[in-house]
Amino acid sequence: MNEILTSSQNDRVKAWRKLSQKKHRDAEKAYWIEGAHLLEEALQSGADIKEIIVVEGSDLQLAWTKFPVTVVSDSVFKSISQTPSPQGIAAVVGFGELNYAPQQGHLLLLDAVQDPGNLGTMIRTADAAGFSAVVLGKGCADLYNDKTIRATQGSLYHLPIYKADLAALLPELKAEGYYTWVTDLTESTYFHECEVPQKVALIMGNEGQGVSEALINAADQAVKIPILGQAESLNVGIAAAVLVYHIALAHGSIK
Amino acid sequence: MNEILTSSQNDRVKAWRKLSQKKHRDAEKAYWIEGAHLLEEALQSGADIKEIIVVEGSDLQLAWTKFPVTVVSDSVFKSISQTPSPQGIAAVVGFGELNYAPQQGHLLLLDAVQDPGNLGTMIRTADAAGFSAVVLGKGCADLYNDKTIRATQGSLYHLPIYKADLAALLPELKAEGYYTWVTDLTESTYFHECEVPQKVALIMGNEGQGVSEALINAADQAVKIPILGQAESLNVGIAAAVLVYHIALAHGSIK
Predict the structure, then answer these.
(1) A229·B153 Cβ contact <8 A
(2) Which CATH architecture group holds B4-94?
């Protein structure tokens, strides 16, 4: 049995704790995940699992033992956990460049979506709706923020997620046959009155500012969701859900 | 000019602070709202504003002066504020029984939705989609929880919100001509393959358990949203958005 790490001041423990900060994640090219379910998803997707950390007394599945495992005391685990109710198992996962690679199906492009919960929820929605990939533009919350990861509910391991300068990416997408929809509340058409193209790249924008002017101008079609009551607007994750599912279900039947 | 309340231990200050707890809200039949925008919405909707609390040095709109106004010091306001960035104006608003009254348009019925953020977001979505009312069944988060109120973004003042035993309400709704849709992941039909009736009462359920068995059995139509990717499920607020807008846009055009 492994030695048990019992000091919260141990250098490795300190290094794990630092993964809660973006600058340290970027420096280490690694992030932190917690819980057996998420680890299972990471394993199945072929994520770059660097090491596993478990609390003393845990049962370990055989599949995990091919990675370096460190056993820590209950108090150490609590000191490194990023969740309110620690599940006693965590992993350090490496990440590389997230450069866009050509896709066949619909895409969700996110322009400066700042809230990690919104970001994670939209990734989960795009996954559920069978979109091919999500592309994060400048100003988005960090994909590896613990709140983002939690909100994806594992979907960050289900479809490719890229980072790109969206303005620079649009001509490339056009060459791939994509037709760009952008959400805009001003001069735009109700989404359900537009014909849905075969390959849509849907751009959703910042919570307060919406999509940037440059992207609105560069897009093929500006769409909006009708507001039929007195609400001033919709939450961006909600608006994305309405549009993503409308696009996903526009062609053909599902069995 | 009013006297300035400077003691956080003053009895009235303590009473305001207690409105952050449901049991005190229920005992006082009153809740707490913050921010000029929300107060404006409350005023316009004819809500029962009991009193207004402002931080010293605030400008007060004329419309507010018909209510009792108390001026408090900055430190007192911070001690009573329920938000991370206090805006310096708040109100105590009374509430009565929220008994269902017959409606003409679509309804959103919520069965044990536990998360205040989800509850508030769904109220906002129902408002945006022009639904006639929202009915909260047993086990829902409190409508007057500060997180619920914030997530509604003012929509709690835009459409009627009722509380009811949903199982007991369904026969009444049927008599009013409503056709009940319930979300269920098992034996159900894809929502977009169902004809949308003229008056839908849509039931959404608990985050973990879904809609209760009794309500599923009592409903006219069980529907589900197709999962086309690898996600296991959708967030309940997201699922509600997809269904609410599908129902809202099924009949007639919008101008």
Answers:
(1) no
(2) 2-Layer Sandwich (3.30)
